[in-house]
Write a structure and sequence with these properties.
Keywords: Nucleotidyltransferase, RNA-directed DNA polymerase, Transferase
Structural class: mainly alpha
Largest sheet: none
Number of strands: 0
Number of helices: 2
Order of helices and strands: HH
Helix content: over 70%
Shape: rod-shaped
Protein name: RNA-directed DNA polymerase (Reverse transcriptase)
Number of domains: 1
Organism: Trifolium medium
GO molecular function: RNA-directed DNA polymerase activity
Oligomer: single chain
């Protein structure tokens, strides 16, 4: 069973649209995660800043 030229072109267009929608969804997911991170902050930020502070104290003359 072979596809007609019209069916092949239609299939190509549908796959192109599918990939475009998939990339758009990924982009939206990334944007949402960044927005959430900006609102809530990083879970490790307190630990990170404590490490930096103790390192500064150790390195001070």
């Amino acid at each position: 069973m072979t596809l007609s030229d019209y069916e092949v072109e239609r299939r190509k267009l549908l796959f192109a649209e599918l990939w475009h929608l998939k990339k758009s969804k990924e982009s939206l997911t990334i944007q949402r995660s960044r927005a959430k991170w900006l609102q809530e902050g990083d879970a490790n930020s307190r630990y990170l800043h404590a490490c930096i502070k103790s390192r500064r104290k150790r390195n001070a003359i």
